[in-house]
């Protein structure tokens, strides 16, 4: 059994077996002449050896360690923050970042990690994406050298947990209208006071650091502030959980309530102003969602296929014998295949510096819409049993609604694409 340790990665990370593990799907070597319903257009042939290794490591961890926990976690709406530590030990957090204890893998490899996690549950992937892309990615791209050195290694190990606060109760799709404000402290130089509320924030109740976007009172421009919970006096920062969700129940979601919360000037991103900051972080996370949702869809396909082969109706025939059932599977497999290939292409372009935000909008929108649509259709194959959480399909359907909604609802991405196509903006 050979092991791979990826470059730049000092701790026990991404150690993988290249030997095929029957429990880990996704990268089986297929004969060129046979059709592989799990990878019909041989997307795996587009991957480097390192990407295959990263994907296998992630798949193995997710199938062996996450899958056995998810049903109970979803029922109890209980997110185990140890998961981020486990992911950190494997080098799965902030994996595309170079240095700071991160693995420094390609964008596609990062997407294969999200795909593996989301094959189990979109909530687990959300917790990881917020940590990796939104907060670590933001600090890496825009933070001062001191902030990066101080926070990124601990975040890569999953010891420091992050949340990303952009959405507000009155401003979701239109974050430019945000009301959260940062004022200079009237007495203390080099300190800002943040006031306002953010809502629907993944990880906020457990986060040690919260990347909060607020308008600087003196300029009216949006700036990024890294709020460190340990530095917040009592009563200035509250992060109550939002309970009783009907999707993404295996992740933890909450609010961020700021009441003159003091933040040192060094914790403000020094250069970036306006929506460029949050949108740049979202770009990377949206890429992860595009490949991630393909993992959820593939799991729906695998579950529906197995069920259709086992369940017999009318003269002892398996459901899989019926044309209408086969069409549902054919449509879903086709959409998963196209979505995966498109995401690999955009990942390559991103690493070459040729990806535009519209490309990310295109794959985020298409893959989320297709994953949700097909999951809903495949759910029908399970008949009444779909209503039991034991079958897993209903959980994916509920989760995929959220993926279609957050980080730019699909219709908002249509407007981004429409603007790029016509040159006319239709937001307001
Ligand atoms: C479980 C969960 C986790 C989340 N995690 C985070 C997080 O970690 N950080 C964070 O900042 N946010 C997070 N969000 C928030 C999420 O990003 C927002 O819900 C999303 O941006 C949509 O905003 P909204 O809910 O206010 O909907 P609205 O903006 O009120 O939109 C409602 C509907 O109207 C449509 N609409 C709005 N404007 C237009 C228009 N001009 N033209 C046409 N249609 C329009 C939208 O497409 C949508 O269908 C999370 C949400 C959920 C549910």
From TrEMBL:
Family in the record: Belongs to the acyl-CoA dehydrogenase family.
EC numbers: 1.3.8.6
Domain Acyl-CoA dehydrogenase/oxidase C-terminal: 278-421
Name of this protein: glutaryl-CoA dehydrogenase (ETF)
Entry keyword annotation includes Transferase: no
Protein's cellular compartments: Mitochondrion matrix
GO biological process, one term: fatty-acyl-CoA biosynthetic process
Domain Acyl-CoA oxidase/dehydrogenase middle as annotated: residue spans: 163-261
Any single GO CC term annotated in Swiss-Prot or TrEMBL for this entry: mitochondrial matrix
CC cofactor: FAD
Domain Acyl-CoA dehydrogenase/oxidase N-terminal, residue spans: 48-159
Keyword terms, alphabetized: FAD, Flavoprotein, Mitochondrion, Oxidoreductase, Transit peptide
Catalysed reactions, semicolon-separated: glutaryl-CoA + oxidized [electron-transfer flavoprotein] + 2 H(+) = (2E)-butenoyl-CoA + reduced [electron-transfer flavoprotein] + CO2
GO molecular function: fatty-acyl-CoA binding; flavin adenine dinucleotide binding; glutaryl-CoA dehydrogenase activity
Keyword Transport (UniProt): no
The protein's annotated pathway: Amino-acid metabolism; tryptophan metabolism; Amino-acid metabolism; lysine degradation
InterPro entries: Acyl-CoA_Oxase/DH_mid-dom, Acyl-CoA_Oxase/DH_mid-dom_sf, AcylCo_DH-like_C, AcylCo_DH/oxidase_C, AcylCoA_DH/ox_N, AcylCoA_DH/ox_N_sf, AcylCoA_DH/oxidase_NM_dom_sf, Glutaryl-CoA_DH_mitochondrial
């Amino acid at each position: 059994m050979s092991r791979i340790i990826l470059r730049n990665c000092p701790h026990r990370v991404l150690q993988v077996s290249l030997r095929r593990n029957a429990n880990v799907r996704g990268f089986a070597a297929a004969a060129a002449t046979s059709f592989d319903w799990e990878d019909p257009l041989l997307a795996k042939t587009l991957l480097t050896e390192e990407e295959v290794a990263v994907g296998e490591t992630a798949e193995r961890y997710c199938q062996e360690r996450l899958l056995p926990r998810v049903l109970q976690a979803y029922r109890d709406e209980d997110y185990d923050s140890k998961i981020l530590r486990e992911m950190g030990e494997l080098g799965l957090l902030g994996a595309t970042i170079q240095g700071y204890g991160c693995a420094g893998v390609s964008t596609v490899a990062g997407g294969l990690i999200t795909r593996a996690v989301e094959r189990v549950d979109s909530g687990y992937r959300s917790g990881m994406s917020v940590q990796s892309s939104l907060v670590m990615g933001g600090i890496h791209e825009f933070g001062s050298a001191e902030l990066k050195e101080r926070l990124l290694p601990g975040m890569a190990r999953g010891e420091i947990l992050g949340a990303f606060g952009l959405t507000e109760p009155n401003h979701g799709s239109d974050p430019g209208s945000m009301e959260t404000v940062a004022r200079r402290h009237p007495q203390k130089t080099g300190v800002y006071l943040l006031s306002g509320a953010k809502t629907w924030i993944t990880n906020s109740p457990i986060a040690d650091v919260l990347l909060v976007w607020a308008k600087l009172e003196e300029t009216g421009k949006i700036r990024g502030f890294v709020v460190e919970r340990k530095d917040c006096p009592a009563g200035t920062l509250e992060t109550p959980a939002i309970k009783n969700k009907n999707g993404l129940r295996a992740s933890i979601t909450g609010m961020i309530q700021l009441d003159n919360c003091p933040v040192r000037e060094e914790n403000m991103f020094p250069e970036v102003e306006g929506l460029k900051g949050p949108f740049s972080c979202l770009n990377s996370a949206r890429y992860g969602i595009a490949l991630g949702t393909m993992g959820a869809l593939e799991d729906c396909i695998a579950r529906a296929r197995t069920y259709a082969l086992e369940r017999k109706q009318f003269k002892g025939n398996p459901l899989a014998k019926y044309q209408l059932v086969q069409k549902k599977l054919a449509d879903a497999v086709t959409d998963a295949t196209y979505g995966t290939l498109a995401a690999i292409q955009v990942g390559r372009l991103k690493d070459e510096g040729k990806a535009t935000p519209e490309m990310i909008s295109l794959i985020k929108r298409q893959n989320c819409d297709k994953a949700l649509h097909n999951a809903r259709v495949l759910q029908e194959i399970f008949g009444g049993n779909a209503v039991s959480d034991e079958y897993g399909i209903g959980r994916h359907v509920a989760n995929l609604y959220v993926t279609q909604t957050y980080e730019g609802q699909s219709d908002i991405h249509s407007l981004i694409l429409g603007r790029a196509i016509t040159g006319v903006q239709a937001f307001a």
